[in-house]
Amino acid sequence: MCKRCVCWVLFTSFNIILLRAQSLHKQPGNAYTGLGAYSLRHADVFSSTANPAILAQLKNSSAGFFGERKFLLQELNSYSVAAGVPTTSGSFGLQIAYTGFSDYNETGAGLVYGRKLGTKVDVGARFNYHAVRISSYGSASAISFEIGTLLHVTEKLQTGVHINNPVGGKFGKASQEKLPSVYTLGFGYDASEKFYASIEIEKEEDQPVNVNAGLQYKFIPQLLARAGISSATSVAWAGLGLLLKSFRVDVMMSYHPQLGISPGLLVLFNLKPLSPKGK
């Protein structure tokens, strides 16, 4: 079987790559990039991919890039960029993502908004455009939206709800292909300025319940480590991050028991230097 045929089988056989990637919330690598969605000390511009409400906590204008080579196959490369700007009226963000190869690819773009409602509650929303292209058949597009809330139970404990595509955006002229609805309940605990842990309970339409669990630890102000697992697909991931003034660079890798490893690179940039204490 040719290499591109193998890639096609992977795309169509494993929803961890395809249908789950049709939403910006479900882009490959999201469990890693979205880890800080329920933290007041360890969130970044990519955290809003897991819950748009966390964008309200953005303190500096920032931008980032994430790239991943799924199962070491060039045809399964995925790329995403994110940018955010805090204002007196809330924080605004833009996210763009691409997954696939010349014969099959998916593109997504999202506008994000997050706002504080007092000192205890943040809210957020994202409006998404999705496009799917199959070289032999043409292309199709759909529009969806997401909403999220974040409750600051205590200074260290955060919880929130994220609802993705509740009304069901559909692809094509006949609207035969539907984006899945996804409902998530998340918890995050900032044990200290060095250690953070989170857990998400996620229910995607027509899929079993998935649990995303992850943690982050700062050995020193300039060096951090992340690790986690997604129960539904048995995918484990880990990464190391280096903080240098306004820059942060993470090298990560995920592992699937049957399909193998997927390396990734995350780059973040802030207009002001990142606080070494994560504040």
Which structural category fits the helices and strands?
A: mainly beta
What proportion of the residues is helical, as a percent range?
under 10%
Task: Outline the biggest β-sheet.
Answer: 14 strands, antiparallel, barrel
Number of strands: 16
- Kindly provide the radius of gyration, computed on alpha-carbon positions and rounded to a whole number of angstroms: 18 Å
Strand order of the largest sheet: 1-2-3-4-5-6-7-10-11-12-13-14-15-16
Oligomer: single chain
Q: Low-confidence parts, pLDDT < 50 over ≥5 residues?
A: 5-25
Number of helical stretches of at least 4 residues: 2
Order of helices and strands: HHEEEEEEEEEEEEEEEE
End-to-end gap: 52 Å
Strand coverage percent: over 45%
Mean pLDDT: 86
Q: Based on CA inertia axes, which overall geometry fits?
A: globular
Q: Would you kindly provide a written description of the structure presented here, covering whatever features stand out?
A:
This protein has 279 residues and is mainly beta. The protein contains two helices and 16 strands. The strands form two sheets. It has a 14-stranded antiparallel barrel with strand order 1-2-3-4-5-6-7-10-11-12-13-14-15-16. A two-stranded antiparallel ribbon has the order 8-9. Strand 2 and strand 3 form a beta hairpin.
